[in-house]
Automatic annotation (TrEMBL):
Pathway: Cofactor biosynthesis; nicotinate biosynthesis; nicotinate from nicotinamide: step 1/1. It is an enzyme of class 3 (hydrolase). One of its GO terms (molecular function) is nicotinamidase activity. GO terms for biological process: pyridine nucleotide biosynthetic process. Its EC number is 3.5.1.19. It holds the Pfam family Isochorismatase. Residues 36-234 form the Isochorismatase-like domain. CDD domains: nicotinamidase. NCBIfam families: PRK11609.1 (NF008623). This is Nicotinamidase. PROSITE patterns: TAT.
C-alpha cells in the first residue's frame, strides 16, 4: 500500500505537472498591452449620487477605474449627450413614467428621467475621475429620435459612433469595459464590441447596474452567451 509520501511524490511528478499550467493561468494577472484599450462608460454626474438617474453605488466605480486605468496606454471615455426633449425621456411622452417602455421604429425603448442633457453639469464626467492620458471621448445619444446605450452603435443597430473604426485603426484587439450602468450602456457596449470582432472583458467591480425588471441578470447572460469575459479589477496587473 502506498503511503502519503509516495502519493505526494507521484502527484508532484504527474498530476501536478498536468494541473499546473491551467492553475497558473487562472491565477495569473492580465497584463494590458498596446493592443488593449479600456473603455470607461458614462461615469457622469447624472448617474452618480444626487443625479437625475443615479445608479446605486455608482460612485464606487470611480476609484476602481482610476486604479486600473494606470495599466492601459489606451483609454477611451464615453458620455451620454442627449438633446433637450430626447425621445428616451419619459417627460416627452404624455402619461408615461420613467422605466416604462414604448415601441419605437427601432424596437422597445425604456423611458428614462431627463438626464445627461448637452452642456449641463449632469452631463459632465465625474470630477473625481483621474485619467489624464485618456485619448478620446465618444459622445452618444445626441440624435433626438434615437437612444444610444452602446459606445459603438446607436439603438437602431446601424448608426455608428465611429469607435470600432478608431480602435481598429489603432490596432486594438481586446477591450476592457467599465462604468455605468452594467445592464445598459456597459452591456450594449460589450456586445457590440464582440460583434465588431474584439476580445472583450467586463470588469465587474468597476461597474454598477440599474437592474430594472431583471435587466442585470439578463445582461450578464447575454454577455456570457456572446463570449464576453467577466473579470474583477484584481485580475488586471497594475504597476504600483
Amino acid at each position: 500500500m502506498l503511503d502519503r509520501r509516495h502519493v505526494l511524490a507521484m502527484l508532484g511528478t504527474t498530476a501536478l505537472a498536468t494541473l499546473a499550467p491551467s492553475a497558473l493561468f487562472a491565477a495569473a494577472s492580465i497584463k494590458p498591452d498596446d493592443a488593449s484599450a479600456l473603455l470607461v462608460i458614462d461615469v457622469q454626474n447624472c448617474f452618480l449620487p444626487g443625479g437625475s438617474l443615479a445608479v446605486k453605488e455608482g460612485e464606487q466605480v470611480v476609484p476602481v477605474i482610476n486604479r486600473i486605468a494606470k495599466a492601459f496606454s489606451n483609454v477611451v471615455m464615453t458620455q451620454d449627450w442627449h438633446t433637450p426633449g430626447h425621445i428616451s425621456f419619459a417627460s416627452v411622452h404624455s402619461g408615461k413614467k420613467p422605466f416604462e417602455t414604448i415601441d419605437l421604429p427601432y424596437g422597445k425603448q425604456v423611458l428614462w428621467p431627463d438626464h445627461c442633457v448637452q452642456g449641463t453639469d449632469g452631463a459632465s464626467l465625474s470630477k473625481d475621475l483621474s485619467i489624464p492620458h485618456a485619448e478620446l471621448i465618444i459622445r452618444k445619444g445626441f440624435h433626438k429620435d434615437v437612444d444610444s446605450y452602446s459606445a459603438f452603435l446607436e439603438a437602431d443597430g446601424k448608426t455608428s459612433t465611429g469607435l470600432a473604426g478608431y480602435l481598429k485603426g489603432r490596432k486594438i484587439k481586446r477591450v476592457f469595459v467599465a462604468g455605468l450602468a452594467t445592464d445598459f450602456c456597459v452591456a450594449w457596449t460589450a456586445l457590440d464590441a464582440r460583434k465588431a470582432g474584439f476580445e472583450v472583458y467586463v470588469v465587474e467591480d468597476a461597474c454598477r447596474g440599474i437592474d430594472t425588471q431583471g435587466s442585470l441578470a439578463k445582461a450578464w447572460a447575454d454577455m456570457a452567451k456572446a463570449g464576453v469575459k467577466r473579470i474583477q479589477s484584481a485580475d488586471i496587473a497594475v504597476s504600483a
